[in-house]
Design a protein that fits this description.
The protein has 481 residues and is an alpha/beta fold. It folds into three domains: 92 residues, NAD(P)-binding Rossmann-like Domain (Rossmann fold, 3-Layer(aba) Sandwich), CATH 3.40.50.720; 229 residues, 3-Layer(aba) Sandwich (UDP-N-acetylmuramoyl-L-alanine:D-glutamate ligase), CATH 3.40.1190; 138 residues, Protein-Tyrosine Phosphatase, Chain A (Alpha-Beta Complex), CATH 3.90.190.20. The chain has 15 helices and 25 strands. The strands form five sheets. The protein has a ten-stranded mixed sheet with strand order 8-7-9-6-12-13-14-17-18-19. It has a six-stranded mixed sheet with strand order 20-21-25-22-23-24, with helices on both faces. Strands 3-2-1-4-5 form a five-stranded parallel sheet, sandwiched between helices. Helix 5 packs across helix 8 and helix 6 crosses helix 7. The longest helix is centred in the middle third of the chain and has 16 residues. It is globular. The N and C termini lie far apart (49 Å).
Length: 481
């Protein structure tokens, strides 16, 4: 077929484009305001990108008109191409439905869901399976550096998918993940997010229970014991085997006992809990325990308690398809985080510059926690952490997190925030009582100049946004040089 994708530079849709092309289809696509890494990845794979949504890209009947249009969830009624598809009667579908019908049939789907950590955990899981010879297919909302691409068909029955709770399309308001029918389901965590499509946390929980209802009885649901919102979803009904990660019993370096034997697998009536014991304060070394017994020690390039939790979930999911924890631990020692997940871009005149996708107060706080521990154990333990933050997500723009954002940055030393024109709340007012010096700017160039004037040798700059941020990353690197 000739498959044309509207919104092709979204992380999900870009990955879908790679899969469709690998299946032998002719793939084209369009988007607006494209930015790396997805635009770069698509161009490297030889997929034609069209800027904008002029209906001329859809050709004419019998003359280069696509056989199928896959419409991304960022597209809405009124979009010129969407209107042309509907008016001409061109066959169309959503991205998740295309994935389900054309790729996931007869696959063992391992789905990673949750508010935070989906990209990192699914990347870890795909790499563990690859390292152990499983040759999985995958579709991940980022670019795992161990693979260099965000999606591939694979050479086995196993397929890892980042399972997003965002809606499927303008004509299908169900969460994407209800299309995937996983046999192994990971739920990392659950908080209120996506305020543009969900009224409250309960609305999100209903969608999570919908995906749990699709897991077979012989499948497995892996979830953290101390996240009340996830426990409530499980209580709504779960008909599959369960494995639990006891986040609350994460152990200090002076103890390896008392491993929460009260945690019970409800289906089997026996202890079935995973734990972690942090060895290095920044999280680059930790012990993995299952049912009270050590499985080995992970020593890797990542930092932060959140990544320890992600790793445990990946190890547990891999075990469900036959990978022993010791082999998974070996694999994680060679794991490189996905791009834009606390990715070190450069060190310029002694200043480390990181790019991070964090766009929710919890993710911001956990990232800074790991970074602070890393700085404390470095050769420059007194180095400052400078946060450059763009509140860009729809939830951020709506002001849902305006009262919690300042405290999320408490472990940084300086904050520079961008007040874009489309933000519906006064960031200056919200930062008035911030626990660190915060300056709010309306101009990107002013932020760059401020960072260049503030950062000294031994300092760390972390740029946080879930978008392109007007190319600020490379501009800051250039200014520091």
């Amino acid at each position: 077929m000739h498959v044309h994708i509207l919104g092709i530079c979204g992380t999900f849709m870009g990955g879908l484009a790679l899969l469709a092309r690998a299946m032998g289809h002719k793939v084209t696509g369009s988007d607006a305001n494209v930015y790396p890494p997805m635009s770069t990845q698509l161009e490297q794979q030889g997929i034609e990108l069209i800027q904008g949504f002029d209906p001329a890209q859809l050709g004419k009947e019998g003359d280069n008109q696509p056989d199928l249009v896959v419409i991304g969830n960022a597209m809405s009624r009124g979009n010129p191409c969407v209107e042309a598809v509907l008016n001409r009667g061109i066959k169309y579908t959503s991205g998740p439905q295309f994935l389900s019908e054309h790729i996931l049939q007869d696959r063992w789907v391992l789905a990673v869901a949750g508010t935070h950590g989906k990209t990192s955990t699914s990347s870890m899981l795909a790499w563990v399976l690859e390292y152990c010879g499983y040759e999985p297919g995958f579709l991940i909302g980022g670019v795992p550096q161990n693979f260099g691409v965000s999606a591939r068909l694979g050479n086995s029955v196993f397929f890892v998918v980042e399972a997003d709770e965002y809606d499927s399309a303008f004509f299908d308001k169900r969460s994407k993940f209800v299309h995937y029918h996983p046999r192994t389901l990971v739920i990392n965590n659950l908080e209120f997010d996506h305020a543009d499509i969900f009224a409250d946390l309960a609305a999100i929980q209903r969608q999570f229970n919908h995906v749990i209802r699709t897991v077979p009885g012989e499948g497995k649901v892996i979830w953290p014991s101390d996240v009340e919102a996830v426990q409530q979803v499980i209580d709504m009904g779960c008909w599959s085997e369960q494995e639990i990660y006891s986040k609350a019993s994460t152990l200090g370096s002076d103890s390896t006992s008392a491993l929460a034997s009260t945690l019970v697998n409800e289906g089997e009536g026996e202890p079935n809990a995973w734990q972690s014991r942090t060895i290095a304060d920044d999280g680059h070394e930790f012990e993995v325990l299952f049912k009270g017994e050590s499985q080995g020690i992970v020593n890797w390039a990542l930092i932060g308690q959140h990544n320890i939790e992600n790793a445990i979930m990946a190890i547990a999911a891999a075990r469900h398809v036959g990978v022993g924890p010791s082999h998974a631990i070996e694999a994680l020692a060679q794991f490189s985080p996905p791009k834009r997940r606390l990715e070190l871009l450069a060190t310029v005149n002694g200043v480390a510059v990181y790019d991070d996708f964090a766009h929710h107060p919890t993710a911001i706080a956990t990232t800074l926690q790991g970074l602070r521990a890393k700085v404390a154990s470095s050769d420059n333990p007194n180095g400052n952490i400078i946060v450059v933050l763009e509140p860009r997500s729809n939830t951020m723009k709506s002001g849902v997190h305006k009262d919690t954002l300042a405290n999320a940055m408490v472990l940084a030393d300086v904050g520079y925030l961008y007040q874009a024109d489309n933000i519906g709340w006064d960031i200056h007012a919200s930062m008035a009582n911030a626990p660190l010096p915060v300056t709010v700017f309306n101009n990107i160039e002013d932020i760059i100049n401020a960072v260049a004037a503030t950062a000294n040798q031994g300092d760390t700059v972390v740029i946080m946004s879930n978008g392109g941020f007007n190319g600020i990353n490379q501009k800051i690197i250039k200014a520091l040089g």
